[in-house]
Amino acid sequence: VGARVLRPDGVVAILPEANLEAVALVAERVRSAIAGMHVELAGGQRLHGTGSIGLAVFPDHAESAKDLFLFADNMMYKAKAGGKARVAIPTADDVVEVFRDITEKSALVLDAIEEQRIIPYFQPILDVATKQVVAYEVLSRIEVGGDVMRADEFVEIAEKMGVIHHLDALVIERALTQMREMGHDGYVFINLSPRALVLNEFARNVRQIVADSGIPRERIVFEITERDTVKNLALLERFLNELKLEGFKLAIDDFGSGFSSFHYLRRFPIDFLKIEGDFIANMLTSPKDRAVVTSIKSLAQEMGITIVAEYVESQEVLDELHVMGVHLAQGYYVGKPARHVIDVDWTPLRS
Ligand code: G
Ligand code: G
Ligand code: MN
Known about the structure:
Layout: E1 2-7, E2 10-14, H1 20-35, E3 38-40, E4 46-48, E5 53-54, H2 65-81, E6 87-88, H3 92-114, E7 118-127, E8 132-144, E9 147-150, H4 151-161, H5 164-182, E10 187-192, H6 194-197, H7 200-213, E11 220-224, H8 233-245, E12 249-255, H9 261-267, E13 272-275, H10 277-281, H11 287-303, E14 306-309, H12 315-324, E15 328-330
Parallel strand pairs: 5-6, 8-10, 10-11, 11-12, 12-13, 13-14, 14-15
Antiparallel strand pairs: 1-2, 3-4, 7-8, 7-15, 8-9
Helix pairs in contact: 3-4, 5-7
One guanosine-5'-monophosphate binds near residues 152 and 164.
């Protein structure tokens, strides 16, 4: 059995040479073992947890590793939706339904790109010391009917379908046009999928879009994340070095969330480091999270890299970042992602 923690909220177990009955049996044992566990609190109270489990069996439910994980993940959400603390055993209907939903979402994303319905939202980034908004991060949205879909819901699909470079190019073009019209003269942070970046066509395209926008390259920061890594790091390195030589700035996104963060830091010519928001949000209550933030800060300082704290959700956290000497802050307390940018002296949100 191989078990691996993917995210703090999920574990995958792989059972070689097992059929549906065997897997269901093991899953049921895991579920009941979790149900039997508890943590005892200071006052003698007992804290119980539950586990929701989804299954997928090769080749009954999917034939590729990617689809198999996707299916298991969907079944896990079905188990949660069914009331939690249960095992979702897939039926033939589930297979049809799950893959139909994925196909529908894929079609929706493809249509949005085709019809150019991808819209940039802007989230402000504050200079902690001067309390001025010095930058914006561009976050993609798709408007469907009256609803707004967040990037979370479609970026991964676009990456899997191999169309993320179209989406990225479209949103960059719109965002820069809007930035110029509004006269924003700070940095623009742009999320790029490594997978898009290593395409010659995309790199050319982006350079042209930036040149046409009239915004100096020095004010454009490309954020790269390790969520969707490419196999060929040397190739990614080459593209990043070229962009850097031309004057663009580079940032590592969600620093500390994955396993190759430090690898990226060593290897790429980085200007900004964005600390994974979970560390920041919990920094005042968790000594461990605080220690992570402190050490990333001193590491970056030694390397001459500017730090951005994400998920700044309160005045208290902002004050503490000031004390720690963290340079930039982003998060709901500073400002939520919005359709328009307004460059004014920042005042705390009243919500
Ligand atoms: O706010 P939101 O759910 O949109 O962002 C979720 C994640 O999606 C961000 O962390 C970011 O990494 C990614 N993302 C947002 N917009 C874009 C985009 O235009 N292109 C790419 N490649 N990723 C994006
Ligand atoms: O990975 P990336 O940092 O690009 O993701 C930004 C994501 O974080 C977006 O989905 C955005 O909507 C979300 N976000 C921005 N500020 C906050 C915040 O203060 N708290 C939380 N929980 N999410 C935030
Ligand atoms: Mn980002």
